[in-house]
Design brief:
Layout (H helix, E strand, L loop, with lengths): L7 H51 L6 E6 L5 E9 L1 H4 L4 E14 L2 E14 L9
Antiparallel strand pairs: 1-2, 2-3, 3-4
Length: 132
């Protein structure tokens, strides 16, 4: 005659299944936290890069060149400006300046970067031809 209840083996199997399910849930939660942290880093970097790009686009004296600067928050910003489409704009009073801005940062010993590109129309500095 069997009494009502669970055997030790049934309880151990139920605990094992519960433990495995709990581990899967915790791993998914951990992966989501990692992805949230990574996306937060990209949002902060994109904000910094956008601010730097707006500052460049607001300048009236754009000329070809490149430079780098480091921020207090640990970002490194590389900027390159070059004259674009010279053959198409040679007879115009304006020229196109291509701006490449790359922001770099390190998170958990891994280097990450984000690149923004833009083009700005600027007036050409016309030099009068010499009459010599």
């Amino acid at each position: 005659m069997r009494k009502q209840g669970f055997t030790l083996l049934e309880i151990m199997i139920a605990l094992s299944i519960s433990g495995i399910a709990l581990m899967v849930v915790l791993q998914l939660f951990s992966a989501n936290l990692k992805n949230i942290s990574l996306s937060e880093d990209y949002v902060l970097a994109a904000t910094k890069a956008g601010d730097a790009m707006r500052a460049i686009m607001d300048r009236q004296d754009l000329s070809e060149g490149s430079w780098s600067k480091a921020t207090a928050e640990g970002y490194k910003i590389d900027v390159s400006i070059k004259d674009s489409q010279k053959e198409r704009t040679q007879n115009l009073k304006v020229k196109l300046m291509e701006i490449d801005l790359t922001i770099h940062w390190t998170k958990a010993a891994k280097e990450r970067s984000l690149t923004l590109k833009s083009i700005k129309v600027v007036k050409k500095n016309r030099v009068s031809p010499s009459l010599n």
